[in-house]
Design brief:
It comes from Arundinibacter roseus. Belongs to the DapA family. Keywords: Lyase. By secondary structure, the protein is of the alpha/beta class. The protein has one domain: Aldolase class I (TIM Barrel, Alpha-Beta Barrel), CATH 3.20.20. An eight-stranded parallel beta sheet has the order 1-8-7-6-5-4-3-2. Helix 1 runs parallel beside helix 9, helix 3 packs parallel to helix 4 and helix 4 packs parallel to helix 6. The mean pLDDT is 97.
């Protein structure tokens, strides 16, 4: 399936049972809510998907199951976050066999590669597969900045097509657009900056709180692209306290709690993460429940 790098791409959480196996039934419950809301693709095995705790066998199961359930409606993207080029290449080649439509690539994990090494890492993976690729640029969390000069080299490869823009610098959208035009698709990767980056010309949104609030997320995207900024702004203002949950080191636990309270997920996480308890859980639960209680009425955004 072809990938058009625009629209809302949820970075889906990975669902687990109490026995610490993949909970495909709950995963599908959430997936169907995303599809009904009008998302444009899904991303599996990202940071929010507890990537570092998944085995390759579990990645294979998730991708194959998701491909079967989406039934051609949207592309299925697999995240790759490996420490070695060899393992990243192996997973990229396997992703095609699993049925994935594209890849999201992080720079080398657990080693702060320099610019030359980072470019070589991405190019080696891209050369190994025909799948289209989105580079995940998040220097705040992963300490490697994929600069415009590096993209100049990377974009010589046709299957490197997009960036998940997580530098926290809104003006980077304009810099990238000025330099590369439409050759590089730009998707905002920070929930709390999404509307701002969309207004400045980003093509899409790799979203986190969409896992619990898919309709509101897609509504903001489509309203912005339709030029109905005041309507989008009102929803975005309501959403902001919830979107800020995506900035915390416990974003997985926070967003899974939101999914559970919205009836499309559970709080089950995989060790070393632990479920929320005590005052912290009550505080986050109160914030989420307040947001749900004043959830805005949405326009018919699917017709835009």
């Amino acid at each position: 399936m072809n990938v058009t790098w625009q629209g809302v791409f949820p970075a889906l959480t990975t669902k687990f049972t109490q026995d610490d196996t993949l909970d495909l039934a709950t995963f599908n419950l959430n997936l169907q809510a995303q599809l009904a809301a009008g998302v444009d693709g899904i991303i599996l095995g990202g940071s929010l998907g507890e990537a570092s705790t998944l085995t390759n066998a579990e990645r294979e199961m998730l991708v194959k199951y998701a491909v079967e359930q989406v039934d051609g409606k949207v592309p299925v993207i697999l995240n790759i976050a490996e420490g070695s080029t060899r393992e990243a290449v192996h997973l990229a080649q396997a992703a095609s066999e699993f049925g994935a439509s594209g890849l999201m690539l992080l720079p080398p994990m657990r080693y702060k590669a320099d610019d030359r090494e980072t470019v070589a890492f991405f190019k080696d993976i891209a050369h190994s597969t025909h799948l289209p690729i989105m580079i995940y640029n998040n220097p705040v969390d992963y300490k490697i900045d994929v600069t415009a000069d590096m993209f100049e080299e990377l974009l010589k490869l046709d299957n490197i097509q997009a960036v998940k823009e997580s530098t926290r610098d809104i003006s980077n959208v304009t810099r990238l657009r000025n330099r590369f035009g439409n050759r590089l698709s730009i998707l905002c990767g920070v929930d709390t900056l999404a509307m701002e980056e969309l207004v400045m010309g980003a093509d899409g949104w790799v979203a986190g709180l969409v896992c619990a609030f898919p309709r509101e997320t897609v509504a903001i995207y489509r309203l912005v692209k339709a030029g109905r900024l005041e309507e989008a702004r009102e929803i975005y203002r309501w959403f902001m306290p919830l979107l800020e949950l995506d900035l915390h080191s416990k974003l997985v636990q926070y967003i899974k709690l939101a999914e559970a309270l919205c009836g499309i997920g559970t709080e089950q996480v995989r060790l070393p993460r632990l479920p929320l308890v005590g005052e912290e859980r009550q505080r986050i639960r109160t914030l989420i429940e307040h947001g749900i209680s004043i959830r805005p009425e949405l326009p018919d955004y699917l017709s835009l």
